[in-house]
Every structure is written in C-alpha cells, then in structure tokens.
Amino acid sequence: MSAGDQQTLTRGVQLSAAAFTYQHPGRPHPAISGLDLDVAPGERVLLAGASGSGKSTLLHAVAGVLHDEDAACGGSLLLDGRSPDATRGRAGLVQQEPESQVMLSRVGDDVAFSCENLAVPPEEIPARVSQALKAVGLGALRDDHPTAHLSGGQKQRLALAGVLAMRPGLLLLDEPTAHLDPQGRLQVREAVLNVCRATGATLIVVEHQLQTWVEHVDTLLVVEPGGGLRHCVPAQEIHQDEKLRAALIAAGLWVPGHDPVAQLPAWRPSPPNHSQPLLSAAGLDVHRRRPKKHRLGAVAPRPALSGVDIRLRESSATGITGPNGAGKSTLLLTLAGLLEPHGGILTAATVLKSDPSGGLGDSPHLWRAADLSSRIGTVFQEPEHQFVRSTVAGELRLSAQAARRPGTAEPLFTDGEVTARVDTLLTRLGIAHLSEVNPFTLSGGEKRRLSLGTALAAGPQLLMLDEPTFGQDAHTFAELIGLLREHLTSGGSIVAVTHDQALLRALHAEEFAVTAADPEESAPSEPARPRGMGPLLSSAHNASWLGRRNPVGKLAALLLITAALIATIDAVSAAVVTAACFALLPAAGIRLGTFLRRIWIFAAASAAAVWGAALAAEESGSVLMNLGVTTVSTGSLELGLALGARAFAIVLPSVLVFSTTDPTDLADALAQQLRLPARFVLGALAALRLLGLLAQHWTTLGHARRARGLRRQFLSQSFGLLVQAIRMATRLAVAMESRGFGAGERTWARAASFSGADALVLIGGAAIAAAATGTAFAAGTWNLVWT
Amino acid sequence: MPHSAAPSWRHRTWSVSEIVVASTLAVAAGVIFWGWNLSYHAVSTLFLAYPPAASLVAGMWLFPAVLGALIIRKPGAAVYCEMVAAAVSAILGSQWGLGVLLSGFLQGMGAELVLLVFIYRRYSVDVAVLAGAAAGVAGGINENWIASYYQYDAAGTWVHIAGFTLSGAIIAGVLPWMAVRGLAAAGVLGPLRSRRAHTEGLFRAGGPRK
User: Fold this and answer.
1) How far off is chain B from A723, nearest CA to CA, in Å?
2) Residues of A (695-734) whose Cβ lies below 8 Å from B
C-alpha cells in the first residue's frame, strides 16, 4: 500500500439509531418513526423501501443536514456515539441529481470546496484534491477543467471526489445512478466500490434498482413507509428468501431475476388499419436552436443529427436509443412539432391531420398549439414542466378544453365530452382520489402518470415520450406499460426516447438507434445558452493582461469611472471614456469585432434615451418639430444627445471588466479581500452556476406549454421556472451543507493577492475618471447632475 | 436527540438553504428578465409615444425584492435578492453598466423599509403591494434625481415616478404575493418560513413562525 493510500485510509463510522423519529414541519405523518438500526464500521449497506418511505430523509438526518426549526423529532441517531451535527465531515452525501451537486465552475475548486469548509490548511488541500480525483477515476482532468463540460456520470464521480476530500468515515449515496445512462451507472458504481475498498469507509446506498448494488454489499435493509425497519438481512438472502423477494417486489423495487414485463398480461400489437405512416421524416436535420434568418456572415449551427429517415405507423411503438448527448431528445421534439426542422422533409399523413378543411400544413411545426395537442402529444422527462393548473382534474380539463377544430376557434370537445374525458382518464390513471390535489405535491409515480394524462386528454393519435420510465419504481413502470398498450391497441402510435430495454420489450417497440454524429457533438456540453443571453462572463479563464488582474482592483476602477460618468450629463466626458475603452481592447484580449457585437444593442438603447429626452424634456432654444402635444427643441435634443452618449459610455467599461473576470475569482476576492460574508458570496456564486441550466428550463417550459395546446404564457412559464429554481436550490443547499459549508471558520485553497499590476488597474481607472472630468471641465461642458 | 433545540442564532442568521434559495431566485429573475425582453415589445411602443410612460412596465425589474422577502421572511432578503438580481443583470450586460447595482440597492431598500415598518411580521397582500410601490418610488427617485438617467420636464418626471410606483405595486407587489402562495401550495417551500403562505388570509398577519 503506497503512502498516498495510507493517507486516505479512515476508520469507518459506526452508526446507531434508537427509536429515531423525524417529522417534516407541516406534514401530517412522520417520515421516519421508531427506527432502530446498527451499522458496523466498514459495513456496506443497501437501503431499500417503497417510494416515500423516508429513505432520503434518513440519509439527510445521518448527514447532519436536517435542522428545521419546526420539525418534530425524537429518539437518537449517533455516529460513533456523537450527534450528526457534531461530526461535520465524518459523513458525506451524494444525491441523485448530477446538476445540483456541482458548486463551482472548475473541477479542482469544486473538490477543494469541502476541504476549505472544514478549514483544512491551504497547503494540504492540493494533495487531497488530486488524491480524491484519482480515486474516482477523474485523475486525468486538469484542475481548471470546466465542470459544465462533464457528463452526468462524471459529475456524480466529481461529487464523490468532493465528499472523499473530506476523508469521511461514512459514505451516504441517495440513488446516485438514477439519472445516468448504463455506462455512467457502471462507472459510478466502480468508483464507489474502489473508494470503499481503499478507505474502509462505511457505505449506505439507497437504490430502487437492487441488481446494481446487491452483489457488492454486505447487508440489505428494508424500511417501511412512515415506519421503522422491516428487514435487515445479509444481502445474499435476496436470491433465496422467497418471502423477502415477494415483499420487495410488492414494494415496487426492481429485484434481480424478477422481470416485471413477464408478470404483465399477454399482449400483442394489433395490425394497423392504414399502411401509410402517420408521420414520416426524410433526410431530417435537427437542432435545439431555431434556424435563424441568418445575418450576413453568421454560420448556420451544425445539426445535432442530420439525414434522419423515420416512419411512424399506427398501432406501433418506436424506441429512439443511443448514448447521452447524441441528439435523441432534439429529434423527438422536432418530430413532435415543437422544434423547427433545420433541413429535410417532415410529413404528417392525412389520417393524422384528420382535417377536412385541408388548412393544416405538412410539417407539425407549422400547426397552431391548439391543433398540435389533439394530434401529437408530448410527455417531457420532467413532469413538472407540463403542469400549469392548481389541481389534478384542472390539468386534465385544460388539455381537453384547449384543443380546437383546425383553423377555427371552436372547441374540439363539448363541455359534456370534456367532463367525460376527464373522468375516464382520472380512473384509467388511477388518480381519481387525487383529483383536487395540487399536481406539484403528487408522488413521483403519480406525477408521471398525470403528465401522460395531460397529453392523452387532448386525444392525440401520436404520443412522444422522453425517458418515460427514468427513475420510476416497478409499480409505476407496470402502470405506464398498461396505459401505453391501451393507446397502441386503440390505433395510436408511440415514440419514446429511452435507455430502458424492458420498456422496448413490453411495447414490442422497433428500435431506432442514434449514434453520435461526431465525438465533439456527443460530449455533453454546457447547456446551450439561448440566444440573446449574452454571457459576458465566460467560463473559460481569460488569459489577457486584464484577465489576470485582481477582480477587486478592476471593480474599484470600474466604480470610479462609472461615478465620474453619473456625476455629469455631458458628451465630452462620455467621449473620453468611450475612447479609453476602445484603446484598452488589446489589454483585455478582446477583438474589435467581438466587442462591437457585444455593445451594438446598447447603442440602440442610448438612441432610445436620446428620443426620450428630446420628446419629454423641458423645451428650450428653438422648436425643431411640433408634434401638437409636445415638441422637440434644440435644447431638449442637445440634452438627449448628452444623455444618450453618457448611457452608452457607462456600459463600455462594465462590458470590458465583466468580459475579463472569472466569477470564481471575483467571489474569492470579494470574500477574502473585501471581507464580504463568505456564506453569501459562495451561495450567490453557486447559484450563478445554475444560470445556463435555468435558461434551458425556460425554453423547455415554453415547449411544454405548446405541447399542452397553449400559446405563449409568460406568467405560467415564470412560475414554472421559480418552482424548478427553488427545487434545484434546495438540493444544492443540501449538497453544500453536506460538504461542511455554512458553519465555522473556513480556509481558502487559493489566496487572492493584490500586486503592483493590480494597483496599476486601480490607478488607470482613477486616471480615466479624472481625464473624463478634466476634459469636460476644460471644454466647459461639465454639468453636475444634482443641481 | 440531535436536533431537538434549535440554537437561538438560527432565528436571526440565515440558514444555508435560505441563502442558496434567495440567490437562486435572483438568478432565476435574471432569466425571467431575459424571457421578458425577448417576448414583449410593449415597452418600446410606450416609449416611442410618450417616453416617461415606459415606467409602467418597469415594475418588472423590482419583483425579485418582494418575492425574496415574501419567501425568506428575514431582514435583508429584499435588498439581497434585488442586489443579486442586479448583479446578474450587470454580468449579463445591462444598459446601465455598474449603475444597476445602485438601482438594485435603492429599490431593494425601498421594499425593505416597508417590511421593517411591519417589523418583519406581516407578509400579507397589502404589505406586498406597499413594498412593491416603495421599491417603485425608490427606483423613480434614483432614475430621475440620483443617477438621473432621465431629464424629463416636471410633468414627465411625475408621470415617470407615478408609473414606476403603480407598476411596482402590481408587478412587484400583487404578482409576487400570488406567486408565493402558488409556490407554497405546490409544496416547494418546505425548508422555508413561508411554507404555509397559501393557508394565510389575504390580510392576516403572517408571523415568522407560522
């Protein structure tokens, strides 16, 4: 064993619970009640139980991240005889969703974060970081590799490295592979097992898919809903003990050797009535972004997938399979009429259009939302994206009501028909008892069925599903198969993007395998920032002279220049600042063309400022234009020009500074040098990393509304975004806290320094501010604004 | 018993989840601003006809202050959310450069003062409307007299400030209040003080513990 391994070797934690009970505030029942449990140091435990049986709550309690003021809890829960709050860093938690476990934008920083929170001496941190990255198989990555470029599986291993850098004695994994493709799943499992072998840490892993872990753990623990422990047995018993197997199957778990498809009633797809496909694509090119009306010089984005030929027939299912990032979902959304094709032909058959007036175009993308939803229904990976009403019945009703007769404003269904459809669906989906419940509060499986219901309520013949069985338990799986088979039997057609072979078998689906167009495209890239979201901050490190300067120095310089501009309304000082900014472009490493592309929109805004003042400022001098109610005079026009020039000049230094400043460096400097509270600075920094992701949610929320038959709905889209933002933030906060964030002293792996060159930036800023003011004075245009 | 008695400091300082939720709300606000810019051109039409009236939609830029305050329900939430939202705008490229930080601070303070008057115990619709309106007044004062982005004549100035205030009361008052009730009903405010906002009456006092 090498010296490096010796260092990572920690004593496994001994965990004991006695009559432990925890009730979330405002919930009628405890999540855990009367739990007795003993886990020996170094023991590996697979924790299983039906959905909603308090498994995540238990892991959170052990990780020491549950401390709500109003929660009711009792009994005891001890790690090596001490309370979880008092053993910060001894237990490390990895949750299921990869995105909300990355805190910082560079790989090295993200791992170092937990060490800093535990106040590990800075000189010790780099060794811990590289050891941890090596242990999870990410040793080949450079410290400044952008975390946004990692795949889901790599992100989960990065989270594991972050936990590992704390040298914990207990690893808590909450369905760590539920969001991953098969390859990522294996990589994460191997990394976990290696770490356990190398460190001797105790392991508790929660998982629905028992076969992923059961061969690699010592003990199988089964908890019952709202209660304590039901089984605590050696893991191998799962192969022999029939009663245990039956109990696990009844709890909806995926038990090795048990095929839920085989338990379903026999079913054969019925032969189609028409030989013609409902929807066919020939040479289709797809891309997330809308094909732009290209401005001159702009290059068309390369399609995510090109030359796709596919035919979708009645009564049959098609499974789109392939590696993550190959463009499967993009293809699905294009077929669904939610994204505009970039090339090739997409043709809906007359049967699908069922439009006697003949007004509907061939490509579904051209249809109105109200015509689309009654022909092609789409079910998104995240059901919550589709919810727009406050009750379950309301959601179904809305879908049925939104459908229209082609080309008219007449509803497709009468009021009576709407009610009948809603009632039938509530029963078919098994959610009749929940009809008045808020959709967001349903369980995962209920949400999944409701999202399918919202598509079915408008009566589409073609159903598009994005990963419909992802992360679902075996009960929900079986119920979904039942519903989808009914749809096929009634002459419908289904397309599903999926990794799930059981789903393909159950529906007798034809497989349409997509391969990555080229390795670069298949690499999971940063969530595409939608157009117009001009990112001044690049995640790539800016290596220019200005880019290497201390952010606080730059900020202070920016502040001085901005103050000098705000103090006066005159074109001369604005011109001086503008000239200085253009002169500084080489120092910032920004090309003139790039800079102009970033600022032209602000020139338009200053033109608006000119117009505003010219029209509505006090009249003075001679009147140039008499508009009846108001006039444009020489005086007001002059004032407007000065205001416009000032507005334009204010933007430029800020664009220059923010284009050359890395957010992480900025946060480091704000917390270390300006002594702003680290909790708030790092909280804001971690949230900022979610920007691209939230923008992606916004776009998906828009697609989901069209798929529901609704036109653009700004308020409902905003509400949907807030829900996702808070959900993500809550998970992110748990991840941060489980890595020791938020209490006590912390250290900084990288000390922010202030050099002579940084002082020069500050002096330069002061000089520009002074030059602007001085020149304006000399020219006699300086005009203090507060007089 | 690990968490029986919450230490008293937790009642005053912000928890990690409060900090992260408030920060994320501000970032989400940045995305909503951007969605608004792409979708709506009402502003430019108003602006062309009578520039001072464009402030009727300026409340859009104030909603993070009241939304953050109603969700977090602790001192400083309005200023913090509005400042982070302003910083996000600055980073994405704002028309006013670093000046947005000043606007963010003053507008946030406007809302914060109203909540202070109610000693952080009332989060009802009337308080939300007052807070939104106060943020609007602060924004109007800043844009006409402090940062002075506009130099309208007397009538124009008053129309601008009145429009800002009205817009703040509705877009940054009533709408955030409704949104928080919706979020509470959706059950996503679990770890926060506002988790039961949907069960509170229109005008009933919402103390920090209920």
Assistant:
1) 7
2) 695, 697-698, 712, 714-715, 717-719, 721-723, 725-730, 732-734
**Nearest-Cα residue of chain B relative to residue A638:** B151
The token pair that represents A726 in the structure block: 């808070």
Q: Cβ–Cβ of A566/B99 closer than 8 Å?
A: yes
pTM of the entire predicted model: 0.93
Give the per-residue pLDDT at A618.
86
Does A306 reside within a domain?
yes
The distance of B134 to chain A (nearest Cα, Å) reads 22
| A35 in B contact zone (CB under 8 Å) | no
Distances in Å between the Cα of A708 and the Cα atoms of A61, A286, A411, A757 are 39, 22, 14, 57
3-state SS class at A278: coil
Q: Can you tell me the ipTM of this complex?
A: 0.93
Q: How many CB pairs under 8 A join A and B?
A: 256
Query: Measuring CA to CA, which residue among A424, A506, A500 is closest to residue A457?
Result: A424
Predicted local distance difference test score (pLDDT) of residue A699: 92
A550 with A436, same domain: the answer is no
Same domain for A567 and A501: no
User: Is A247 found in the same domain as A313?
Assistant: no
CATH number at residue A358: 3.40.50.300
Closest to B108 (Cα-Cα) out of B140, B71, B134: B134
- The strand pairing partners of A170, in sequence order, are A91, A202
| Total tally of structural domains belonging to chain A | 3
Q: Closest approach of chain A CAs to the CA of B118, in angstroms? A: 23
* Domain identity same for A511 and A557: no
- Please report which confidence band the pLDDT of residue B49 belongs to, taking 50, 70 and 90 as the band edges: confident
DSSP-based three-state secondary structure for A453: helix
Give residue B34's identity as a one-letter amino acid code. W
Q: Report which of B64, B79, B59 is spatially closest to residue B165, judged by C-alpha positions.
A: B59
Asked whether residue A469 falls in the same domain as residue A567, the answer is no
Residue of B15, B32, B52 lying closest to A616 (CB–CB): B52
Contact B84 A730 (CB under 8 A): no
The structure tokens listed for A121 are 């001496």
- A537 part of a folded domain: no
**Residue A747 maps to a domain:** no
Contact A704, A716 (CB under 8 A): no
Residues A477 and A508 in one domain: yes
Domain extent for A343: 279-291+302-522
Residue A501 sits in the same domain as residue A582: no
Whether residue A745 lies inside any domain: the answer is no
Q: Suggest the residue from B25, B41, B96, B98 to mutate for an interface test with chain A (most A CBs closer than 10 A).
A: B98
Mean pLDDT, 10 residues at a time, over chain A (787 residues)? 46 92 85 91 93 88 85 91 88 92 93 95 95 93 90 92 94 91 88 91 93 94 82 90 91 90 89 86 88 53 83 94 85 95 92 83 92 95 94 95 87 94 93 93 92 95 94 90 94 94 94 69 41 44 86 96 95 96 94 90 86 87 80 88 94 92 91 94 94 92 95 91 96 94 89 92 97 96 87
Q: CA B81: distance to chain centroid?
A: 7
A514 and A616 together in one domain: no
CA dist A282 and A204 (Å) reads: 50
Q: State the DSSP string of A13-45.
A: PPEEEEEEEEE-TT-SS-SEEEEEEEE-TT-EE
Chain A residues close to B142, C-beta within 8 Å: none
Judged by CB atoms within 8 Å, which residues 440-459 of A form the interface with B? 440-441
- Classify strands A631-633 and A623-626 as parallel, antiparallel or unpaired: antiparallel
B153 CB neighbours in chain A (<8 A) are 616-619
CB B156 within 8 A of CB A616: yes
Q: What is the pLDDT of residue A414?
A: 93
Cβ separation B17–A734 shorter than 8 A: yes
CA distance A538 to A144: 13
